[in-house]
Predict the structure of DUF6316 domain-containing protein.
Amino acid sequence: MNTQPRSGEDGPVPFRCNRFFCVGNKWYFTTREGFDSGPFASRQRAEVGLKRFLHVVEMLPEERRLH
């Protein structure tokens, strides 16, 4: 787990858990809102899926974002 603060964050590092999990041989990611996405064929593909999800969230107007 990363114990360094993220860029622009002050104060103690909050607990962060792994967003990726495997069920059988399929990979998934989970969001802060509790949404699970998958299945993906590999962890690498799940990581790409998460990056795409976060990119879409960044494009939403601030008032539409859930986090």
